[in-house]
Amino acid sequence: MTDETTQESALSLADGTLHIRQDGPRDAPAVLLVHGSASSARSWDPLVPMLAETHRVIRLDLLGHGRSAKPGDARYEIPDQGRRAGEVLDLLGVRSAVVVGHSTGGSVATALAEQRPGLVTALALINTGPCLDAFIAQEFAIGPAQWPELTDEQIRQAMRPAFSRPGFVIPQQLVDDVRGMTYHAFTATFQASSGYLAQRPLPDRLKSLGKPLLVIFGEEDRRWRSSSAADYRVVAGARVELLSGVGHSPMLEDPPRTAELLLPFLARAE
């Protein structure tokens, strides 16, 4: 394998430009990391060094997020985001990849596998709610007029349910990711996620795909009931792992334990 440094690029698709990061040997097995709502590829930063030792790690900012385009007339539906992720892999010359999604990113990963089963070899979902009944309601009401005036503290307050590890400090870059979104992209993404789950729960979608599946859930998740992880056991051969002491974002709250689960799964998927 040949070692490569981190490479950043912008890929132009028909409905917008997406920002991409690549780490690890370019001739190693590929793994695509898909972030959740109101986040970006940077949410994977603590985990990437552990994966990049043996894998070509590809990250994208979904349309409307991070450094990707935020068109006001774009479709932010989950199948559209999944299609774009597949187009990214095509443009990068990747013929097969394990896809790892966090939260809403797990829905995007599932949509990609539905559309391109020959491209996706296996799926790993991290704190991805299986159905709407598993959602824990949040109190965060803000209108378009107030959106530009949000302070860092208000954004952090809204983000606190995403982190449960005692003493965890929300990185400024995650606050900046929220601030960088348009109100339209923010609300449309959440509506799209809910709509996708309302149409059909994820376990029902996944059990017909026949793909190896790893589900990781922080036991202290305050956005999705961690007990709902058991719903994924209807998928033949699915492995469900609960991590104690962390919440909605294990790859940020406890990267080593997250990697300990992911790396053997990636090795078997090859």
Compile the SSE list and pairings.
Elements: E1 7-13, E2 16-23, E3 30-34, H1 48-51, E4 56-60, H2 78-91, E5 97-102, H3 104-115, E6 120-126, H4 152-159, H5 172-179, H6 183-199, H7 202-207, E7 213-218, E8 239-243, H8 250-253, H9 255-269
Parallel strand pairs: 3-4, 3-5, 5-6, 6-7, 7-8
Antiparallel strand pairs: 1-2, 2-4
Poorly predicted ranges: none
Strand order of the largest sheet: 1-2-4-3-5-6-7-8
- Strand-residue proportion: 15-25%
Number of helices: 9
Radius of gyration: 17 Å
Major β-sheet profile: 8 strands, mixed
What is the CA-CA span between the terminal residues?
A: 15 Å
What are the secondary-structure elements, in order, as H or E? EEEHEHEHEHHHHEEHH
Oligomer: single chain
Mean pLDDT across the residues is 95
Helix content: 25-40%
In short:
The chain is 33% helix and 18% strand. By secondary structure, it is an alpha/beta fold.
Structure description:
This protein is α/β, with parallel strands linked by helices and 270 residues long. It is 33% helix and 18% strand. The chain has helices at residues 48-51, 78-91, 104-115, 152-159, 172-179, 183-199, 202-207, 250-253, 255-269, and strands at 7-13, 16-23, 30-34, 56-60, 97-102, 120-126, 213-218, 239-243. The protein has an 8-stranded mixed beta sheet, sandwiched between helices. α3 links the parallel β5 and β6. The longest helix is centred in the last third of the chain and has 17 residues, at 183-199. It is globular. The model has no long low-confidence stretch (mean pLDDT 95).
